Amino acid sequence: FIEPDWASLTLGVFVCQACSLLHRSIPHISRVKSVQDTWDASEVELMAAMGNSAAKAKYEQKVPAFYYRPTHTDCKLLREQWIRAKYERNEFEFIEKQEPYSAGYREGFLWKRGRDNGQFLSRKFIISEREGALKYFNKQDARDPKAIMKIETLNATFQPAKIGNPCGLQITYLKDNSTRNIFVYHSDAKEMVDWFNAIRAARFHYLQVAFPGASDEELVPKLTRNFMKEGFMEKTGPKHTEGFKKRWFTMDDRRLMYFKDPLDAYARGEVFIGSKENSYTVLSGLPPSTQGYHWNHGITIVTPDRKFLFACETEAEQRDWIAAFQRVINRPMRPQEYAGIDHMEEPIDGFPSK
């Protein structure tokens, strides 16, 4: 919990410093003041009359269950659009204002990164709850989509730094049980967040049908997820003699994927990280017999079949990766996760030395 050091005098709410900066971007709605400043009696009365609980009851009275409520760790785009949706657009007081993401169908144009040349091109996207898919088209008048992404395996996460755009969104889905990435953005921040929440709405609808007895509280955490950790490490092949190569790693729950470039469409390979009950362990360092030049800070993942060797550039990175691996290994496997192991045989799990 972050202590609120600021207040919005016009809205009657206390906010943290990070949110106070965002409130300043809507001065026609919110006038902020530090709690350390001198306050006159009328200002104190105004805050006492409203307060955060009363403001929440007013401005958040009809937030859809699927709508993403950002925290202080989320990107600026999500936090700013949440504040604007609440206080500037009053989206959660009037249901009709939620149609862009609540209608069960949305179409529009997004800038999509080309798989081969890395250029961003305008592409038409359609998401349909009824069809259970997100589709995009290479040509404006094309009848057939270039790709059909099943809502069942769809995920979306904002990646502004990686994509190089404040509205950059990474969409992932499974194609032939391999993870496929597409990278998109829109120049309008509201549009991009609306797309993100439309994906969450479609996922919510899908999960409600798939798990009819489940509560909203059980389903909402499954709508979208941020990656547990990403970054560069070095890896070697299954014989541990192939030499170490620098790769971009993404840890998506129990799937550890590696890419030649952070914006690659497909992973070069994938490692399944099981639990300690299944004889998975993570160790600091590399076996003494490890050959070849590599970064100094090693990590060994021991699985029932073999050892995977990684090297990090800094001790801090090594510590963060070990902590991420340990969190997953310490968590017992869910029944549906066992299916993941079956699909990650050689060559994916074989860590081909690419």
Automatic annotation (TrEMBL):
Domain named Arf-GAP: residues: 1-100
PROSITE patterns for this protein: ARFGAP (PS50115), PH_DOMAIN (PS50003)
Entry superkingdom: Eukaryota
Gene Ontology cellular-component annotations: cytoplasm; plasma membrane
Entry GO MF terms: GTPase activator activity; phosphatidylinositol bisphosphate binding; phosphatidylinositol-3,4,5-trisphosphate binding; zinc ion binding
PH domain residues: 103-204, 226-330
Pfam families to which the protein is assigned, alphabetical: ArfGap, PH
CDD domains for the chain: PH1_ADAP, PH2_ADAP
Localization, UniProt: Cytoplasm
Presence of keyword Zinc: yes
Keywords, alphabetical: Cytoplasm, GTPase activation, Metal-binding, Repeat, Zinc, Zinc-finger
Alphabetized InterPro entries for the sequence: Arf-GAP_dual-PH_domain, ARFGAP/RecO, ArfGAP_dom, ArfGAP_dom_sf, PH-like_dom_sf, PH1_ADAP, PH2_ADAP, PH_domain
Protein name: Arf-GAP with dual PH domain-containing protein 1-like
Organism of this sequence: Sphaeramia orbicularis
Gene (name only): LOC115410794
